[in-house]
Amino acid sequence: MFATPAFAQAASGGAGGAAAFTSFVPLILIFGIMYFIMIRPQQKKMKEHKSMVEALRRGDQIVTQGGLIGKVTKVKDDNEVEVELAEGVKVRVVRSTIAQVVSKTEPAAS
């Protein structure tokens, strides 16, 4: 009916290493699934956003994360752009806060 402690120890004595490994297999699988479902797509999205922000040029129409739509009038440095929201209204915007480029200008032919 009940297993005595001596019988229980004798039954599991030889498979201790394999049992420890099999208990970690679900954790490894969960981490692998989480990597392919959550971490990898987020890294890809961040890389695309970074390349989009680095490719900003004068004349591009953008949308900021705050929902403001404007036109890039000047690319000041590697962290900041000047955006015209309305006629005569220009603001400085940090590049990382630009959510998307609505319309891209064509490069000048040389």
From TrEMBL:
<protein>
    <recommendedName>
        <fullName>Sec translocon accessory complex subunit YajC</fullName>
    </recommendedName>
</protein>
<dbReference type="InterPro" id="IPR003849">
    <property type="entry name" value="Preprotein_translocase_YajC"/>
</dbReference>
<keyword id="KW-0472">Membrane</keyword>
<keyword id="KW-0653">Protein transport</keyword>
<comment type="similarity">
    <text>Belongs to the YajC family.</text>
</comment>
<dbReference type="Pfam" id="PF02699">
    <property type="entry name" value="YajC"/>
</dbReference>
<keyword id="KW-0812">Transmembrane</keyword>
<keyword id="KW-1133">Transmembrane helix</keyword>
<keyword id="KW-1003">Cell membrane</keyword>
<comment type="subunit">
    <text>Part of the SecDF-YidC-YajC translocase complex. The SecDF-YidC-YajC translocase forms a supercomplex with SecYEG, called the holo-translocon (HTL).</text>
</comment>
<keyword id="KW-0811">Translocation</keyword>
<feature type="transmembrane region" description="Helical">
    <location>
        <begin position="15"/>
        <end position="37"/>
    </location>
</feature>
<keyword id="KW-0813">Transport</keyword>
<comment type="function">
    <text>The SecYEG-SecDF-YajC-YidC holo-translocon (HTL) protein secretase/insertase is a supercomplex required for protein secretion, insertion of proteins into membranes, and assembly of membrane protein complexes. While the SecYEG complex is essential for assembly of a number of proteins and complexes, the SecDF-YajC-YidC subcomplex facilitates these functions.</text>
</comment>
